[in-house]
## 1
Amino acid sequence: MSRQMESQGPDMGRILHRETHSSRAVVATTAAVLVIALAAYGLLEAAVHAFGQPAWLIEPQVAAERLVALPAGISPLLLGAIGAVLAMFGLVFFLNGVLPGRRARHLVRGGGDAAGPAVVVDDEVIASSLARRARLAANVTPEQVTVVVSQRQVVVNVRPTSGVPVDHDAVLNAVQSELGGMALDPTPEVQVNVAPSGVIGA
Amino acid sequence: MNSTPTLLNRVLIALLGLVLIAVGALLMLLAAVPAVASWWHSWSPGVWNQVNQAFNATRFPGRGESWLWIVVALALLVLIGLMVAWVAQQGKGRANLLAFEYDPGEVPGDVRIGGGVAEQALKHALANRPDLAGATVTTYDVKGSPALKVRLLPRQGVAPHLLADEVYALVAALEQVVGKRIPVLIHIGAGARTRFSRAERVR
């Protein structure tokens, strides 16, 4: 990856990292909107209070006194449920921020020439391309082949037509040659499963 | 490829998550553990009294209201402004110019080539391909230098590496026209349009 990138400019490695990892823009916007909504409510109550008007929903003093008295004044079940929901949302935000956030994408090194383009491919596209090769090698219909592409593994499931055996090694070789042409980074391992039972009338 | 502040996003999201987890855990413990409830009763009234005193000490002369409320309102306004600024940072980074250089020729002046040149040319070249359900080309400003992002939506079963090579040949031709090497990112993706379209049978 880095070898190829240096010839193109100093920032291609960074661009590729940003393309294969989530930017968390959606979660960030959600979080910002949440904070804005809370702050807007607080602003309203503070401004209303500063001008000596009656509060809109609840007097800040009353709210604070209720908070101080907390386990009393509310059913423990409701309080625990509110706490659990808040903690759950917090966990979602926290994990979104902390986990690597890798997207289901691979880099394609493309033909081996160093000046080539930087190519990022969705795993779904890889899967449909491999499924086509596997289908041709196994001589079955598209519905009989499913391909699952993950970061380090490609699983090809083939359900043969009843009475027509499927050559396991032929499918494996076809998929591997297609993967070799793509030269993915990180390179996944191929696993071909031929189902023991066949499909009738395909 | 855009200039979304990913590190800032991660830090702020994790921070908000931690705060929410802390509040939620406190509420759950208050509801479930009596010891926590008694600690809360011994700790929180003191804090509340201090806050109350602060508000009482800062009343407007002659009126019942504290000017601390205005401070609170201003602080919340600043917070809202910061949040809006944060949202505005997401997905920024589009550029208009593909090349801008001083022309050392006889005519004085600069040469500027707009990003629309590349975008229109590549889009037009890719428009009638049967193996593509769609293509978009955008110019981005990556740390001060322009870069192209070509997003392709191939139909099902198209080999991505062959497609990338063909598209890069187009980009190389464009580079010859512009007279400058342009960093190019080709993103071959899948979307609803490719998922529900029929497989490409010709290739």
Note: Helices of chain B lie at 6-32, 34-57, 68-89, 115-127, 160-178, 192-195.
## 2
Amino acid sequence: MNIRYIFLAIIIFFSLCLPLLAVTEFLFLEPYVFFYVPIYHLPNFLSIVIISALTGLVLSMSVYRIRFLQASTKKLRSGLLGSILGAGAGACCGGVGVALISIFGTVGIAATTFLTNLEIPLRLISIGILIFTYLMIVKDLNRECNLNFDVKER
Amino acid sequence: MVLSMVQTSISLMEIMFYLKRQKYITKNKLNFSLYTILLVSVFILFGMSSQSVSAQEIPSWIKNTAGWWAEDKINENDFVNGIEYLIQNEILKIPQTQISKTQESHDIPPWIKNTAGWWARNQISDTDFVNGIQYLISQEIVSVTNPSQALRESTIQKIGTFDISKAGSVEGYDDAAFTIIMFSDYQCEKCALWFQHEKNLLTEELIDSGKARFYHLDFPFLGEDSFLASEASHCANDQNRYADYQKILYEKQNGINNGWASHDSLVGYAADLGLDTKQFDSCLLWDKHKLQVQHNKEVGSFHGVVGTPVFFIINSEDIIKKITGPQPPMIFQKVVEELESN
């Protein structure tokens, strides 16, 4: 177990989770810093936590593979795709939605509409991509580590 | 149109160059013809641009209503009332028109209806349609005696720096020490969820107890249907059912611009509520409350509202506190207590 990569996973988790919670309005900054998850928003909140946790896990494992096993960045990219998709979903009304509309106008409205109307499916797709990437990385790590071990033994 | 004009000019110039290369024309003739083409093109383009400026005076959606009248989907009165409203509120801009001293009759001549139909089908120009409207004004069939200034100068009711004169309805007692203003978009899911789950508790704790009054102001920013839904809520207010209709809108909220807040759906909700659908439909069709909604949105923008829901709590000394996002009633309570202690 490499403590540095666990630490990296935790940092990625918090640095994704906190902004997402603020953007999706579970974490309020005005007039007081206040955290509130109403029961009717529980699925949304859980999906954000799961996406952040999986992103932390997948990205830190990908970094490990790239650094020590000289693996390709393909899985890192699919991990990032999963997290971006999950982060974008449900961006309506609050921060990201407004930013999209004010920057891109009509196109921004269309993007916000898409992200909002398909919030849950997008989050599920995102979780699916991240789980798939995680499984592939685990499989690759087992294979590559065994292979390296065999080489060393000879 | 402009593009094809430019293309035609370029083609003509190319033909002239070709003729010169083939030595059918001299250099002087080539220059002369190029200048002529250029000059004529500029004149035509100038003419077209001035025409397009006047065309901008008529919003394109008025064509739909003109078409409906021509097809007898709406009656003459609705058309006249609508045109009057649009002219009075400067949405439809018509050149100054002299009132005729020899008025023929107060009935709309059939040619006007034909003109409206042709105009709706793009068979005649905007100018022809405007001529028809000018005729109606000259015959005093369409009255333009009350300009929009009257609406703008109508009672300005201010709380702090907020003009709430165009708010739909107010909840709470007149002598309440605090005012809560909510800016909301009917297509915003968080606004709908807040209204359904948190508003009742807020009403119990602050509004029914006489501590605060509650105003709802429109801030439609998520597309056309948001604006239409806000207008619809004011059309319901005309029949004294603002709160009931608003409740229905928040219950029916189901995404953005996907049809749940289309014209037909909104009229359908009015019918479910037992409103006079003919009056409601006409109100919505003619954008009777467009300026009201625009005004409320401007009030929000002026106070830095960019997304929804946003709340402002104002005390009797006009001290304002902003609450951003769908926060629970306990935060409102805390802000009120803080303002009280001040």
Note: Residues 154-341 of chain B form a domain with the Glutaredoxin fold (CATH 3.40.30.10).
